[in-house]
């Protein structure tokens, strides 16, 4: 049995196979049928604007000789993309098999649907087919369709999943704002922090990228074969085509109008968007690595999944696989997003076709990221702090109090207290490379000529209480 003979067809990639459930929401916006449906929406709305004019009631149609559409006729036209399902996908594919051109196949598909219009819709006749794709080059339709597909995919699917990560982290940052945690700088014990503050760092970083994404522009153009409105003006010289173009892109398509292009919209907005998503991916990758190491260290404990196997030979294991899977999928996403960002901003003179194939991988680039968001969310929901380990780490590293002691000695020296010279060197001699106890720390403090208030303040410190204003800093995470 050949796998290629099995129906329905077996998915080639894991995004449409093993991980279909997690990535399926993007099918609605970034699949080939979704693109064709959006192309139909663009074509239909262009027809309606040309026939009914800016005010929509037909008082001033754009193209002379075209009767304005009634509300019923507009509804019929708009239903063409909305009813585009399995049968429509097959019909479009049949046209493309002949034309070898996906946008021309969309044009012919719309022609077919106009043929099916009820007789009472008198303006929808054969002559109207001339208005389909009027004065358009394929890229007029494509750039608008892709921009709308990507915009909807981001706003309806990716951003909600991303916000869930931020909201979850923010909630945990607040919950653990006062929980002391031993820091490790260069992998060595360092000034303690709080678990909540460390999570808040990621909330802050991710929220900055969220603001960039929420402010993202999605550009579009409709201006002909080389961006000059040449065919438009030749056919209808008295029309202000620049105004028509701006109206269509901004008001009808909900995009930012690009007035200056070659045959293609320049894709700079796409490069900006994919770079920002890749940046967010890399911050989340950093989070995955940190949490993985916290789990390895015992700071976080994992909740075992009932019935799950951590190892085929070691029954005791609970592996942090969600974070590992997230790492891998974020890396795959970034590699694709980086390629999209680098290549889409270049086009030979007025047009080449490299962007066409490249843009067909937008779904994969965002799909791997969406899968990683699902991995990460599942991982974050399955961990909790191990207070026993956290407290043991802190109590085993009294040497971290060397920093506040030597800094307090500096302050006392500046105030003129005797015996406070070379504070760094004195504390270094006591603590560097040694495990020391609370008693040794207190004895050292007693040996110095601190004023009573400073000595009492330093002796009251423990690794668990030496966290500065970490708890308050959590309030700045958004």
UniProtKB/TrEMBL annotation:
GO biological process: IMP biosynthetic process
UniProt keyword Lyase present: yes
InterPro entries, sorted: Fumarase/histidase_N, Fumarate_lyase_CS, Fumarate_lyase_fam, Fumarate_lyase_N, L-Aspartase-like, PurB_bact, PurB_C
Domain Fumarate lyase N-terminal: 17-326
Pathway(s): Purine metabolism; AMP biosynthesis via de novo pathway; AMP from IMP: step 2/2; Purine metabolism; IMP biosynthesis via de novo pathway; 5-amino-1-(5-phospho-D-ribosyl)imidazole-4-carboxamide from 5-amino-1-(5-phospho-D-ribosyl)imidazole-4-carboxylate: step 2/2
Record's function text: Catalyzes two reactions in de novo purine nucleotide biosynthesis. Catalyzes the breakdown of 5-aminoimidazole- (N-succinylocarboxamide) ribotide (SAICAR or 2-[5-amino-1-(5-phospho-beta-D-ribosyl)imidazole-4-carboxamido]succinate) to 5-aminoimidazole-4-carboxamide ribotide (AICAR or 5-amino-1-(5-phospho-beta-D-ribosyl)imidazole-4-carboxamide) and fumarate, and of adenylosuccinate (ADS or N(6)-(1,2-dicarboxyethyl)-AMP) to adenosine monophosphate (AMP) and fumarate.
Name listed for the protein in its UniProt record: Adenylosuccinate lyase
Organism placement in taxonomy: Bacteria, Bacillati, Actinomycetota, Actinomycetes, Bifidobacteriales
GN (gene name): purB
């Amino acid at each position: 049995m050949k796998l290629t003979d099995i129906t329905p067809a077996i998915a080639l990639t894991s995004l449409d196979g093993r991980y279909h459930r997690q990535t399926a929401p993007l099918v609605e916006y970034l699949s080939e049928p979704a693109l064709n449906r959006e192309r139909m929406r663009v074509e239909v709305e262009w027809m309606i604007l040309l026939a009914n004019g800016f005010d929509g009631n037909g008082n001033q149609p754009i193209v002379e000789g075209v009767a304005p559409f009634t509300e019923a006729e507009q509804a019929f036209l708009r239903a063409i993309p909305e009813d585009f399902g399995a049968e429509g996908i097959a019909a479009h594919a049949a046209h493309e098999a002949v034309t070898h051109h996906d946008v021309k196949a969309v044009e012919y598909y719309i022609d077919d649907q106009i043929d099916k219009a009820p007789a009472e819709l008198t303006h929808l006749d054969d002559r109207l087919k001339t208005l389909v794709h009027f004065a358009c080059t394929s890229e007029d339709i494509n750039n608008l369709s892709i921009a709308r597909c990507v915009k909807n995919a981001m706003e309806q699917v990716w951003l909600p999943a991303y916000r869930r990560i931020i909201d979850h982290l923010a909630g945990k940052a607040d919950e653990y704002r006062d929980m002391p945690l031993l820091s490790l700088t260069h992998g060595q014990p360092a000034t303690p922090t709080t678990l909540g503050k460390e999570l808040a760092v990621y909330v802050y970083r991710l929220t900055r990228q969220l603001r960039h994404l929420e402010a993202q522009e999605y550009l579009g153009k409709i201006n002909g074969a080389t961006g000059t409105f040449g065919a438009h003006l030749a056919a209808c010289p008295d029309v202000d085509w620049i105004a028509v173009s701006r109206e269509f892109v901004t008001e009808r398509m909900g995009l930012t109008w690009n007035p200056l292009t070659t045959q293609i919209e320049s894709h700079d907005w796409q490069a900006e968007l994919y770079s920002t998503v890749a940046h967010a991916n890399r911050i989340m990758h950093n989070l995955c690595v940190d949490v993985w190491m916290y789990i390895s260290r015992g700071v976080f404990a994992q909740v075992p999944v009932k019935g799950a196997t951590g190892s085929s030979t070691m029954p005791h294991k609970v592996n942090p696989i969600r974070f590992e899977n997230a790492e891998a999928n974020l890396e795959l996403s970034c590699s694709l997003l980086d390629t999209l960002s680098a290549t889409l901003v270049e086009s030979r003179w007025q047009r080449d076709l490299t962007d066409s194939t490249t843009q067909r991988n937008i779904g994969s680039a965002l799909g791997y990221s969406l899968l990683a968001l699902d991995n990460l969310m599942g991982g974050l929901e399955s961990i909790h702090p191990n207070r026993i380990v956290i407290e043991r780490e802190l109590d085993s590293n009294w040497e971290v109090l060397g920093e506040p002691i030597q800094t307090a000695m500096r302050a006392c020296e500046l105030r003129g207290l005797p015996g406070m010279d070379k504070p760094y060197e004195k504390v270094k001699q006591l603590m560097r490379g040694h495990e020391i106890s609370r008693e040794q720390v207190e004895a050292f403090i007693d040996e110095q000529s601190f004023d009573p208030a400073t000595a009492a303040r330093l002796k009251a410190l423990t690794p668990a209480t030496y966290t500065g204003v970490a708890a308050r800093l959590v309030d700045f995470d958004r």
